[in-house]
Amino acid sequence: MGSLLFRRRLSRTLLTGIYCGPLRLLAWEIAQRMNKAKVPCDLITGQEREEVDGAKHKAVTVEMADVTSEYSCAVVDEIQMLGCRTRGFSFTRALLGIAADELHLCGDAAAVPLIQEILKATEDNVKVQYYERLSPLVPLKLPLGSFANIRNGDCIVAFSRFEIYKIKRQIERERKHLCSVVYGSLPPETRTRQATMFNDENSDFDVLVASDAIGMQAGLFPNFDLLFLYSRLHATSGLYQILTLHREMFNLHPGCFRIHLVPTVDSISTTYMQNKLSFYTLIFIGVVLLCLVSVAMIGSLWDVRNLVPEICDLQEMINLQILRAFCGEREVVKNYFIADCEQMMKVAAVIDELPINLNDKYLFAMSPVDMDDDISSQGLTQFAQSYSKTRIVRLKEIFTPGTLKVPKSHHALKELESIHKVLDLYVWLSFHLEDSFPDRELAASQKAICSMWVYMDLSFLAYMTFNM
Suv3 C-terminal domain location, by residue (predicted)? Predict the structure, then answer.
């Protein structure tokens, strides 16, 4: 399936429309294109509200899809993500909840049989249209061998933040290339700047080093030609890491570039890799052709209350118990599964003893916080504690504006990325509890400064390594 045709129809021929994408950057890209084409379009994400006068179109992240309004046309991009264990429920909600005369679903063809099965219950008229890839997916016959063989326009995909920066240094020490970097924990604004530098033909940054998070952002990188997969695992475990590569890596927008897949494993000899390359190629093809068998779902607080009848007085129960009851051994109908609630339960475990009503506890549990990041987790905890005491959370209580600095080490860079997550969380909460989180503009401005320092650090490190 393809999405470009649907986006054009949304912007030119229909009265009202909504585009739902998996990433803020994609929603931002669509809003920019629409407004540039003189079609007013609002941008709505969990952390942004940019409303345009007279707009009858919206570009949103899928979690922010409005299922209470009616549209002439709705587009849900990367629909195969309804099988994602953590975010899939938002795509399922959009699929079944958006009220539109036409609903265009764009993404991996592997999702087609499952969607057809699901929509039998709604009696929707489903039409499937396939689009051929405009450039072939061609595995190389030989591994990369050495980073000295990297050329302008190449992209290296690594599987950890540590490996990304190590590869970046190795390539730049050859003094032939400067590298842009993209990975999930980078601030979105920084990712956009890194993409802009790589795409600019006049820029010195002519190689991209990224994590597998680049898969859904392929439309932001129209200029790279060769893509290599990099793994340091041994032969006995290297296959596992390659199999964990998100299938979105193979669902890149048609016409962007040719892709050559080469697993480069340090601990395995070149001869061994040449012998095994055809085997890995078959594995890649198998990953591409896998079909989805079920979609994720999770309830709103109303759903949880009504679908856990054994809990008599919910106000006397703590949020964690309710989530465990709802997400545990629940029976669901065919083609559905309960989404992974691990992050929600981690939040619930932290805030359940606080004097906050159940609705607010559920809101905190649904917030986009990374509980595996110590600084982010501490930020969420402090926000919730302050909220429980006074119902007013001032940013200055936990963060001192003006203290952000350009990081001078990778540890400091990682810490700055975490601080950005905390500021991002404050902005998100300010849109849901506006009166209680009044410092949205201050948090947003500090976020911008944070992104700028991260961007400056990446550029400085690149030039320093190149000129050593």
Answer: 347-388
Return the bridge partners of 102, or none: 73
Beta strand segments in 191-267, E = 205-210, 227-231, 263-265
Q: For each successive 10 residues of the chain (468 residues), what is the average pLDDT? A: 38 75 87 93 92 95 92 92 85 90 88 87 86 66 74 81 84 85 82 82 86 64 56 43 45 41 42 44 41 58 48 51 67 76 86 86 88 93 94 88 77 88 94 94 89 73 49
Which two tokens mark 211? 């994590």
CATH fold label, 147-291: Rossmann fold (3.40.50)
In contact, 93 and 67? CB cutoff 8 Å = yes
**What own/partner pairs with CB < 8 Å and gap ≥ 24 does 397-406 have?**
398/422, 399/423, 399/446, 401/442, 401/446, 404/446, 404/449, 404/450, 404/453, 405/453, 406/453, 406/456, 406/457, 406/460
Give start and end residues of each alpha helix (H) in 60-160: 88-97, 112-118
Q: Which two tokens stand for residue 266?
A: 């340090």
